[in-house]
Amino acid sequence: MFIRKIALPLAAFIFALPLTAVAAGVFRDVLDTPARESAFASKSLLNGVASTGKRVVAVGQRGHIVYSDDGGKSWVQAKVPVTSDLVAVTFPTPEKGWAVGHDGVVLHSADGGATWSKQLDGRSAGQLMATFYAAHPDKGALGSPATAAALVDEAKRIGAQGSENPFLDVWFADENNGFIVGAFNLIFRTADGGKTWEPWFHRTENPNRLHLYAIRQVGGGLYVAGEQGLVLRLDSASGNFSKLDTGYKGSFFGVTGGEHAAMVFGLRGNAFRSVDGGRKWQKVETGLQDGITGAASCGEQRLVLVSQSGRLLVSDNTGENFRPVKLDQPAPASAVACLGKDAAVIAGPRGVRAQAVQ
């Protein structure tokens, strides 16, 4: 069977089969093995970071999740039920948060990131998808009979793969309503805080099943960014994600923006912004030649970008004019979150650290 790798900006994101842990001579799946405590958890590879009230939470390899209540000066390792590599985290409220990663894992915290429980993994997600589409073709919601049959076949194939496919981003509007997206067009929605999930595989204008790398609500719209220049926007009238054309065919790793503008960013320093809901896009001159791997909106007046090589750029919330920021300790970056309007926390292969962004 042909397997397409996920072209993400950091090696830790590369598509891989589930790993196992060895304990007392017995192999255990990473989905059933709690993350080990490590004094170096905050200095190891961390792929995602989010602010939650006064706390900052970062997620990374081997199920490591760390949090800080003092602006990144010190870090505490959270209790996590898996050792799967984690790639993204979000907190719609100071207490409620979600993290996603390899092996199709979805984790939930109800205490600001100190402890986590598993809500979903690739084994159950694949079966959920197969069951959902097998039960729906007769209701007409999946399009023509041929389209419905193809969806059922695709769902069964993904279900048979088990925990092979990762989720790559997560976004919640509030403590109940959210989305997870991932490899090969995987997308699920929940309206009850992750107690149940509904596949939206049939609701994306993505016939080639390109990977979905990011999902965010900015500028009054909900956007998805993916490989090969894929950008989707949720059409509230149809309930489907419709394809937008930025004119760029390279992969986009993220979405950011302010109240009046949306911006997508990705390979080779490329970024494009739209002020009309995605109908027209304008190239943003970032001055970067490496991949832009993370972004954050710091209050109402500032956008921050970080890159693979460790560059950090700042702009006002229109995203038109970015300027470089001199870093205290330059290092490759994978994600960034704000600490107020004048500081940020940067995560990457060397761990997580605070940085002024004035």
CATH topology: Methylamine Dehydrogenase, Chain H
**Number of domain modules:** 1
| Helix-and-strand structural type | mainly beta
Note the total helix count: 2
Please state how the strands of the largest beta sheet are arranged side by side: 3-4-5-6
Identify the CATH class: Mainly Beta
- Please, what is the average pLDDT? 89
**Main sheet properties:** 4 strands, antiparallel
Known CATH architecture: 7 Propeller
**CATH superfamily, please?**
YVTN repeat-like/Quinoprotein amine dehydrogenase
Distance between the termini: 50 Å
- Rounded to an integer in angstroms, the radius of gyration calculated over CA atoms is 19 Å
Question: Which percent bin holds the helix content?
Answer: under 10%
Shape: globular
Strand content: 35-45%
List how many beta strands DSSP finds.
29
Provide the low-confidence segments as ranges: 1-7, 9-23
SSE blueprint:
Elements: E1 20-23, E2 26-29, E3 46-52, E4 55-60, E5 65-68, E6 76-77, E7 86-90, E8 97-101, E9 106-109, E10 117-120, H1 122-135, H2 145-160, E11 167-172, E12 178-182, E13 187-190, E14 198-199, E15 212-218, E16 221-226, E17 231-235, E18 240-244, E19 252-257, E20 262-266, E21 271-274, E22 282-283, E23 292-298, E24 302-307, E25 312-315, E26 323-324, E27 335-339, E28 343-348, E29 351-356
Antiparallel strand pairs: 1-2, 3-4, 4-5, 5-6, 7-8, 8-9, 9-10, 11-12, 12-13, 13-14, 15-16, 16-17, 17-18, 19-20, 20-21, 21-22, 23-24, 24-25, 25-26, 27-28, 28-29
Helix pairs in contact: 1-2
